[in-house]
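Submission sheet (multi-component)
Chains listed below:
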Amino acid sequence: EVQLVESGGGLVQPGGSLRLSCVGSGFTFSTYWMTWVRQAPGKGLEWVTNIKEDGTDIYYVDSVKGRFTVSRDNDKNSLYLQMNSLRAEDTAVYYCARGVYKVDYWGQGTLVTVSS
Amino acid sequence: DIVMTQSPDSLAVSLGERATINCRSSQSVLYSSNNKNYLAWYQQKPGQPPKLLIYWSSTRESGVPDRFSGGGSGTDFTLTISSLQAEDVAVYYCQQYYSPPRTFGGGTKVEIK
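Outcome: structure written.
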């Protein structure tokens, strides 16, 4: 059974940092692009970033460029999102998902709250 | 960036009736070399992550009931629920994956009339 489990969310002050993690199981992690999508409370979905299977190709939404860094460790079946210089508008549930075209499995999400 | 516009924002449909959701992209998401539309549809129920329903604009994901169908090409797309069931109450999103940022539409909330 394919599973994606996110962790690392929490309350952080504006300007602070957090590192989200996502562990995949039940599939060959190293053969899939991975995706982060976020959802602000009561709002719609926002695509954040994609990373290629080997980490050589990465894309970001403009609003996080220069502040967020996605990475992966295929030996640990893990995906990461380093978030720096956090703003109130980054408050959201962050979902890890498998794939880039056919995004077929999603984690349950981890809540990031940016507030003083 | 490709802007995805969904309509309506919400709709209420009687059980057993048809529900149609529209999605328009600000530029074509049809890739001419393979004749595929780079568009997906997702369903999200309260407190749950999104669920993939349709990809390549019209290919139903495994396990998705055949009352869900996707259509359209280029810049105009539809998601149709042919006979609405109670369990279909949710918010539906379209997403283009033609080019990054791989943007979502604003969502359409489907309710029972």
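Remark: The first strand of chain B starts at residue 4 and ends at 7.
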